[in-house]
Amino acid sequence: MHLPATALLLPLDINISPNSNGLPGIQQLRNIVGASMTIGLILAVLALIISAVVWALGANSSNPHLAGRGKMGVLVALGAAIVCGASVTLVNFFWHVGQQV
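The structure corresponding to this sequence follows.
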């Protein structure tokens, strides 16, 4: 099998890593993402408060459906807070796992 001459000129090992100065506006994008994370955490706290109130109202009024919905809301709000808070760590973890493949 004979390879064309252009195939022999292609690099066999590609090494690309992210950089913070490749495009204009990277710092503004980081600020936007940070603000979005803050908004997400604030909304998760608000959802937790509302869900806890719904849970309490359902439990005190002997309404199991309302109490169940409040419990589910508390779990969803806590899950959202975990994902918002751990998003950077999760992305970095999977980035490093991907680099080892």
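Residues 64-99 form the longest helix (36 residues).
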